[in-house]
Write a structure and sequence with these properties.
Length: 141
């Protein structure tokens, strides 16, 4: 809000269309000030509540008593690996096509995958050479 006000834009409220110009900027500044004050109050209340809970002997943060078994951890890792292998297999034809067209470097393949709009494993828009290298390791290329 501060940057918006500092930029000097005109302020007009949809629900108060007659308020604009300097009056609109003033009201917006007041709204921002009240929001900042309330954020400070919330922070103060939270700190006091945490301090009181700690004084009562309440353990804050850390382990809440849930212990994941080694078998469950292994199953989770296996599921992640299976998804990675499947994703790499899906990308294999595209990567092979790029290689046949002359794109052979990791950076070049990354640029091409980005240009094609193919999302990364985590849904990102830009591929990196390291990500391509990991995919190639999964497909054995």
């Amino acid at each position: 809000m501060t940057r918006l006000l500092d930029s000097g834009v005109d302020v007009r409220f949809c629900d108060l269309p007659k308020i604009e110009g300097p009056t609109g900027r003033f009201i917006l500044q007041q709204m921002a000030s009240v929001a900042e004050l309330e954020a400070g109050f919330i922070s103060d209340r939270t700190k006091k509540a945490l301090k009181a809970a700690k004084a009562r002997g309440k353990k804050l943060g850390g382990n809440r008593g849930v212990v994941i078994s080694a078998e469950a951890r292994r199953a989770g890792v296996d599921a992640v690996v299976a998804r990675s292998v499947a994703r790499a297999a899906d990308l294999k034809p595209t990567i092979n096509e790029l290689r046949r067209s002359g794109v052979t470097s990791l950076a070049g393949i990354a640029e091409a995958l980005t240009a094609k709009g193919i999302p990364t494993a985590r849904g990102g828009a830009r591929w990196s050479a390291v990500q391509v290298q990991r995919v190639l390791a999964r497909i054995g290329s």
